Amino acid sequence: MAWEVVIGLECHVQLKTRSKMFCGCPNTFGAEPNTNVCPVCLGLPGALPRANRVAIAHALLLGSALGCRVREESVFARKQYFYPDMPKNYQISQYDRPLCEGGELPIERDGVRAGIALTRIHCEEDAGKSFHPERHGDRRLSRVDFNRAGVPLLELVTEPVLRSPAECAAFLTALRRLVRWLGISDGDMEKGQLRCDANVSLRPTGTTPLGIKTELKNLNTIKGVERGVTAEIARQAAILDAGGRVTQATLLFDADRDRLALMRTKEQAHDYRYFPDPDLPVLRVSEALRAEARNATPELPWAREARFRDVLQLPAYDAAVLTDSRELSDYLESCAPNGQHKLAGNWLMTEVLRWANEQGRSVSEWSARVPAERFRDFLARVAARELPGPIAKQVFAWLPEEDGDVATLLERHGVKVASGEATLRPLVRAVMAEHATVVAQVLAGEERPFGFLVGQVMKKSGGQAVPQEVQRLLREELAAGRAPEAGRGS
Amino acid sequence: MALSRAEAARIAELARLHVPEAELDRVAAQLSQVLDFAAALNELQLGDEPLTAFAPADAPLRIDGPDGRTLDAEIATANAPEAEAGFFLVPPVVEDLEP
Amino acid sequence: MTAVETWRRSARSVAEEVRAGRITAEAAAEAGFEIPAARWERDVHAILSTDRSARAHAAAEAPKQAVLSGVPVLLKDNLCTVDHPTTCGSRILGEWRSPYDATVVARLRQAGAVVVGKGNMDEFAMGSSTEFSAFGPTRNPYDLARVPGGSSGGPAAAVAYGLVPLALGSDTGGSVRQPAAFCGVLGLKPTYGRLSRYGLVAFGSSLDQVGIFARHVGDVADAYRVLAHRDPFDASMREGGAPDVSTWDAGVKGLRFGWPANLWREGVDQAIVEALERAAGWLERAGAQRVPFEFLPGTFAVATYYLLATAEASSNLARFDGVRYGFRARSDELGSLYAHSRGEGFGPEVRRRILLGTYALSAGYHDEYYLKAQRARTRIVREYAAAFARCDVMLLPATPSLAFKLGEKTDDPLAMYLSDVFTIGANLAGIPGLSVPMGLAASGLPSAVQLLGPADSEPRLLQAARALEAEGRSDKIPRGYEREFAWPGK
Ligand SMILES: [Mg+2]
Ligand SMILES: [Zn+2]
To answer: pTM of this prediction?
Structure first.
């Protein structure tokens, strides 16, 4: 039988804030163990939580970008289960009254934009970290670090509407781009700043009721999501093809061994006994907070991508790459000389991104070194064919390393560019005079010798001329030369 | 209503609270007594909304930044039953996995 | 001035003497630890921890020109302190030392008060007799065979026998007002959200409030003035400024006091009914008006309370698991470490309530118990609002009986719970309540009445209590009135 795949994702996004969700401890990655902790995030007796305004603002910004409905009154609830990395043995989360509901995140499906419907987005706190047990004398013990405990998280849940592992990957990629775009998270999956669980079920193609689902945990890279979901689809299909029934279960994906392991959990482990946290007042989203989120919502990546394609006339591929990050696309818009977005895009996609890659630096480091106006000056000279290829590349290499505009750089390095018409035209005429026979051949309609003439001019210029400019002048001169001859012949 | 011995045991497990076998019946009986008493609430006409909290009308949210209460490293683990090199130590969670 | 002269003084007069330099803060702090007060402690066992050098240090540090300069204070042992252990009357906290002072403790210290030690209590404030302390019961100074009430029995008894003029307790269902009534002292439970809960080890977070014990109405007012301030570390605090209690001695002319006599038609000791009649008479004589009406019987509040308080407690006490602090049972596996640390670390009443609360929140029972109780709570809030539309304060018993004997109710949880039948409503409604001693009954035990008012009516409650205090001094009706502990003079 043919099976239709139904997947829903549950994503956790660590928010970029100065302090944790409910206390003033620093929200930083990689500190010494248990140095970013206080009575609140260590769950000491008597300590009380206080919600971080910026975390709420970030959540509202994401909600605004995704078109969610924002609840005027949402409620923090305690999700209760015992785990050694959870200081209070409950997690402050949201349950029946989450901050945001509905909305959708667009991804590409069969070459067109499709909105992936969201169920909800809510705020919660992260847990600490426990490490693999190690020997301690005659016992095995795990080390626990609570630095991460209390870091603000957004949980984003999709409807069960994704249809393939590739779509899951596309969704996560789009989500990562968006949270970075909005500046609310670094979305670094390696650092656990973006994590994902998947609910997977199969049903006979063409039917509507959902099949029995399993939950996949530990999908901590985009590749991992794709591979884990692929493996689970295969496993379920094999069971169903053999006439069996899928049993509801939680599976852990082991990325190292590329396989799934079944978690044997007792039923009551899932009795979370949610109830409203009496330590935290109902979260009322004021009109001020709402307006703040609205005003802070920038042009969104998918909208900008479409504009780059449709209005700036960039190829679809270029538009996608250039809107991968907000900085890159902002930079493109401010560095492109009059209408030259294609040219600017090419330089960004090939040279600037290569520089960033090779140097292990970010686009913002590039733009700090080469402000957009400086790069625009450079691109304008390139567009005006004032810089021959090799020299343009040389100037590009100087840009992030040195101060000064293009002219200053050339002068500092003693490079003369024979690119002006005034310098080149005499050279063109000289070459034409020296090679009258070749000129005659070209005038007779032969194209090949034209390249020879260009080469001669380039040689005369000491390699500093821009070939396109030489070609243009040469054609002008040839046309001018043909006219009198034609006159003579008549 | 009477809470069964098995239910008392399930609740004890959920609360991570060891109750000796011999005490389960007595615990179940005492809980049943209180639950029976709580059934008195059925006599009230309860059309009311459940109370969530005595919420201040618009409680100010916390400004994002340090509050001066982060603990020094030695103090964080000073009360730990077992600690080492700044970490708390606990016996392992039995991760019950089937391949 | 000698210790003998100091130990029965009011907090006000001690502070006056200290400010004037006529007595040192250290001498004031030590007065309660010398004969004659000291001989009472041996029998009563109000104190869980104290030591001379900590007292001397605290006295030396105390500001000497403040409201409570040099006033010795005993704190219930669920208020976190850096200079004394905080045990909550439980074994499970082990050797835990709080790295911080509760906000109310810090405020007391800033106001010049000297924390002399920590008072006994029912484990985690769960009990009405202080018999559920893991460190042995406290006895009633008026009759050592009887309980002082609870859960704040230690602080109540200490104020009664003269160890200190002022003590702090916590009141979740009557834990300040009930022991105050049993020990013949004043006990104020403020409006929910007026005193910070930061550093008060939580029992039922939506019900808990720090309360004040004293022998003089003026002392309660002074302590309230020091403590009732907004704390940014407690998000559940009430908005706006606390009411001004400087008018505590302004009289009761025109005050309408509610008289819900249906509540004591049966099941209330005759001595308490007489105390109510006497109090009503005195209030009327001082210019107040009696407003009789019927009120919702307290059994509904008790039923509501024992579902909600235990539900919250089951969650609040989850953090005591032997991982980060406190008692840890030896085990090689985490699940059994949890179960045994908690099973052995908690006493029988706490275990009972954790189980009850876990049940009330568990899947399948949440709506029937927890949610229904929250609906009932809304109803109770409305009942009080309706009552306070007709009167300014309500006069009613603090307890159904005078102090009962040790062991009388320890094996009958429900009977113990019902001893809070008159106090629990105020916690559910978040309103203030004040226990006012009415002299000794024929049995030689203190009798008391309770005043309740709407939110922020503390000034009214204190004015009414002051009227009773003033009348009490001239009214010599009850036998044994002049005995050592009743209505001590200046
Ligand atoms: Mg979550
Ligand atoms: Zn913290």
So the answer is: 0.92
